[in-house]
Amino acid sequence: MPQLRMTGRGLWITALIVPPLAFVALFIVYPIISAFAYAFFDWQGLRRGDFVGLENFHTVLFVEPYRSWTLNAFKNNVIVFFALMVLQNGLGFILAYALWRELPGARFHRIAVFLPVVLSTIIVAYLFKLFYHPLFGVVNISLKSVGLGWLAQPWLGQGGTALWSIIIAQAWHMVGFPTLVFLAGMQRIPGEILDAVRMETESEWVKITKIVWPLVAPSATIVFTLLFVGAFNWFELPYIMGGLDGSPFGSTDVLGLYFYRTAFGNVSSGQQDFGLGSALAVLIFIFIAAVAGVITTRLRAREIQL
Amino acid sequence: MSAASSMNYYDRKGILGTLGRDGLLQIILIANTVIMLAPIVIMVFSAFKTTPQIFQSPFSIPDFTQVSNFAKIWTQTNFLRYLMNSFIVTGASMVLILTLGTMAAYAIGRYQFKGSTFILMFFLAGLTLPLKLAIIPLFMLMRDLSILNNQLSLIFVYTAMGLPSTVFIMTGFIRSLPNELEDAARMDGASEARIMWAIMLPLVKPAMVIAAIQNVVPIWNDFFFPLVFIQNDDLKTLPQGLTTFMGEYTTDWGVLFSGLTLSAAPIIIIYILLSKQFIAGMTSGAVK
Questions:
Q1: Contacts (Cβ under 8 Å, ≥6 apart) of B242
Q2: Phi-psi category of A270—alpha, beta or left, where left has phi over 0 and alpha has psi -120 to 50?
Q3: What is the ipTM of this complex?
Q4: Cα B174 to Cα B105: distance, rounded to the nearest angstrom
Q5: For the residues of A110-153, what is the DSSP string, one character each?
């Protein structure tokens, strides 16, 4: 009898666990493992050809013009990451601190700061594309109306400003996320610690740097890691606002676009190479996993356990 | 630097100083809220204007009676079809995610069996992997399953993507539930399935709401997977359909803005009604 009962329960658990497991295995684990395998083959369109070892990796890293494309996209991703680190996470921390003090209207401000986060990236991309229009966009019209007309320019149409214009749209879209994660971290700081500090020092600055910041470190680790993964996966905003080629002149080309273009091609180049695309995917993947791992372990080590 | 010194400066001034510092923070918050809302407000205003009106006075408040832009979208584009497709794909994915996620979380959280830790780890591994980078094998897989250009491809990918966080959130929650009710029912001879369905599931609802919100927003908003999997215009989801339609009306800004407004409206309205649950749901994975 107990034996039979065990079997019945075993069947029941199996029935519960196998369908979800199959989904994750088939649509996440298998594709990711395959992505690694694909990178070692030559591809003709959708047909797999010969095993070519590391040749695809060699091509995207060392053979022109791929080498310059790879480096340019990587460089732009680095700029995106550091810019968003300051604009999105830096502002997010300041906003979280301001919200934490529960000033009048804090509830309303909290709802407003998170509102853009729920919007589709595509909506944000088109909205800002219209705003940045050189003749009719509200950005240039506003500048002209306050007498700063000399600052007006084709924001998305020139190399110097295009990437930064898209970064600002991204920061607007997502600043609410780190804000509320930091705020949640601050709200978990025990009141006794804050009272003790208030006795010790009058300085708000000391309080922030010595107490609040170290205690919200777990939130910071998560926010930094997510930003890093997100920045090096960046696709939708540059795709809509700059185009698949990263125009003008590759100034908004990032790894996500470059990878997609290499794999699935575009109208103008007509190229489609699953081998080179897979090699790029593997390199980006390893890079993200390695750096995210370092960020997490390094920062975790410094966290204060509450 | 200057912010720091000004804060110190205010600190030394007692009550007045406190007001000053909080005043500064209040100004930051108000300025930020204006910056967050202005683009959305301009978008909605512009949706009710003609193109010349948008160019001449982009900030003026329209009288909201001019709805020809919306009429055009309603009658001359595939907007409704895109909206319906988004509902179908998101709805089906959510049903699958919640069903399969609850099943896995229940098994892991409620029973002790060999390999349960490993299985949990297997689910969690999917949590941080950027699945976009596996798009080539996914594309080939969908082709082999003959579901390219079929909404099932999206539903399957979204379900797989949503499962890790759902299993993560719900396993933790299910583990925290007390044993007493379950044990009593077991003594009375209730089957395991009946215990799960009648006793435990009603208790799990709060975690299901969190998991639902965390998944519904990225699925509803996703653009990347439809871009790769769906070619047929009749099957496009809203974000993807938006690109088609923005390309058709490049010079008619009134229609462009009303298209954006219509696309944004459902999620903005739901968010305003349920902002607390939305914020909790979307940040819950990162707050833990």
A1: A120, A122, A123, A126, B82, B259, B260, B263
A2: left
A3: 0.91
A4: 7
A5: HHHHHGGGGS-HHHHHHHHHHHT-TTT-HHHHHHHHTT-GGG--
Interface test mutation site (partner B, options A23, A100, A288, max chain B beta carbons within 10 A): A23
Interval B17-70: pLDDT, tens: 556 778 888 999 999 999 999 999 999 999 999 998 998 888 888 988 888 899
B111–A105: do the CB atoms touch at under 8 Å? no
Q: Which of B100, B133, B286 sits opposite A20 (nearest CB)?
A: B100
Task: Please state the pTM of the whole predicted model.
Answer: 0.91
What phi, psi does B201 have (nearest 5°)? Answer: -55, -45
* Residue B195 DSSP label: I
Chain A hits for B137, Cβ within 8 Å: 30-32, 34-35, 38
Most A CBs within 10 A among B27, B55, B97, B136, hence the mutation to make, goes to B136
Spell out the residues 6+ positions from residue A160 whose beta carbon is closer than 8 angstroms to its own.
Answer: A251
List per-residue pLDDT tens for chain A, 306 residues long: 344 455 778 888 889 999 999 999 999 999 999 999 999 998 887 788 888 889 889 988 998 889 999 999 999 999 999 999 999 999 999 999 999 988 888 999 999 999 999 999 999 999 999 999 998 899 999 999 898 888 989 999 898 899 999 999 999 999 999 999 999 999 888 888 877 877 777 777 777 887 888 888 888 988 999 999 999 999 999 999 998 888 888 899 999 999 999 998 765 556 788 999 999 999 999 999 999 888 888 887 776 554
| Residues of B whose CB is below 8 A from A90 | none
Q: Are B158 and B217 in contact (CB under 8 A)?
A: no
What the block records as the tokens of A206 is: 């000391």
Q: Classify residue B104 as exposed, middle or buried by CB count within 10 Å of its CB (0-12, 13-18, 19+).
A: buried
- Residue A288: which of B58, B113, B130 has the nearest Cβ? B130
Q: For residue A261, which phi and psi values (nearest 5 degrees)? A: -65, -40
Q: Which of B96, B263, B267 lies nearest to residue A118, judging by beta carbons?
A: B267
